[in-house]
Specification:
The protein has about 300 residues and is an alpha/beta fold. The chain folds into two domains: about 15-110 and about 235-300, Bordetella uptake gene, domain 1 (D-Maltodextrin-Binding Protein, domain 2, 3-Layer(aba) Sandwich); about 120-225, Periplasmic binding protein-like II (D-Maltodextrin-Binding Protein, domain 2, 3-Layer(aba) Sandwich). It has helices at about 25-45, 60-65, 80-90, 95-100, 125-135, 150-160, 175-180, 190-200, 245-270, 280-300; strands spanning about 15-20, 45-50, 75-80, 100-110, 110-115, 140, 165-170, 185-190, 205, 235-240, 275. Helix 6 (about 150-160) links the parallel strand 6 (about 140) and strand 7. Helix 3 crosses helix 10 (about 280-300). The chain is globular and about 65 Å long.
């Protein structure tokens, strides 16, 4: 008797690990957990978050690059590890654009220019005028060298053509010092500061995306206020190790696209704009982002802490 052909078990046949290359509680982690829960409900399997922070996201990212391409290790990653770090870090032992497979973009998360209420500026135009009239007076912080927060501030200072003082931080201390008034301004992801904007502890002057954010209606873009082409935000999406079977990639892509509408209201409330789309669209987008940030990182002279 001839044995019937062996077919692989339907995916996912066991829990799927989703690596986050940053600490719990950050924007990447929050978005990933929301989507992971819905994935589990749709695909009747556990999608377990595994935080692996360190080295600007490189530790968690490399762990996925080295993982078996069987669909049971995925990563939700962002602009830094995918589009910035191969320029920022010399001799990175992998290429995220070649060694990871793009699956689907979850969301765009613009940076927002926020100032402490002590800064005498109620609009972006007033901020620019004050910065030009007071060179060297304004201090800005950022959450890490080479982050979109850092590079957005660098880009704006250069475009304005005035001197501002940057103070490097790691993690949330920059925001704490902005809230206390030790810093005067920063670009921050909208989810990290939207509660403080709503509470009146920070003033939102402009967003760094090429179009207004649905999370902050009425807040203009930097580009429309006289700085065309200024687009420097964060974004988040699913990737898998190179070689992951195409049907797995297609299934995760299709399912995430199906569930994003149910998360839309929550995401916008928290500061993210849902995206979706095909793996090919996401791959083209990440390549464009790499090319853009490569120029900015080199021009800024940024080096890892």
């Amino acid at each position: 008797m001839i044995a019937p052909p062996a077919f692989a078990q339907a995916y996912p046949a066991k829990p799927v690990r989703i690596v986050i290359a940053f600490s719990a509680g950050g924007t990447t982690d929050i978005l990933a957990r929301s989507v992971a829960q819905k994935l589990g409900e749709q695909l009747k399997q556990s999608f377990v978050i595994d935080n692996k922070p360190g080295a600007g996201g490189n530790i968690g990212t490399e762990s996925v690059v080295r993982s078996a391409p069987d669909g049971y290790t995925l990563i939700v990653n962002s602009v830094g590890p995918i589009a910035v770090n191969q320029t920022l870090y010399k001799n990175l032992p992998y290429d995220p654009l070649k060694d990871l497979v793009p699956i689907v973009q979850i969301a765009d998360v613009p940076n927002v220019l926020v100032v402490h209420p002590s800064v005498p500026a109620n609009s972006f135009e007033e901020f620019v005028a004050y910065a030009k009239a007071n060179p060297g007076v304004l201090n800005y912080g950022f959450t890490g060298t080479g982050t979109s927060s850092h590079l957005s501030s660098y880009m704006l200072s250069k475009r304005i053509g005035t001197e501002t003082t940057h103070v490097p931080y790691k993690g949330a201390n920059a925001l704490n010092d902005l809230l206390s008034g030790r810093l005067q301004f920063m670009f921050a992801t909208i989810p990290s500061v939207i509660p403080h904007i709503r509470a009146g502890k920070l003033r939102a002057l402009a967003v760094s995306s090429d179009k207004p954010s649905r999370s902050l209606p009425g807040v203009p873009t930097v580009a429309e206020k006289g700085f065309p082409g200024f687009a420097a935000g964060s974004w988040f999406g699913f990737f898998a190790p190179k070689g992951t079977p195409e049907p797995v990639v297609a299934l995760i892509n299709r399912t995430v696209n199906d569930i994003l509408p149910s998360l839309e209201e929550q995401m916008i409330r928290e500061g993210a704009d849902p995206v979706g789309g095909s793996p090919a669209q996401f791959g083209q987008f990440t390549q464009r982002e790499y090319e853009k940030w490569k120029i900015i990182v080199r021009d800024s002279g940024a080096t890892p802490e």
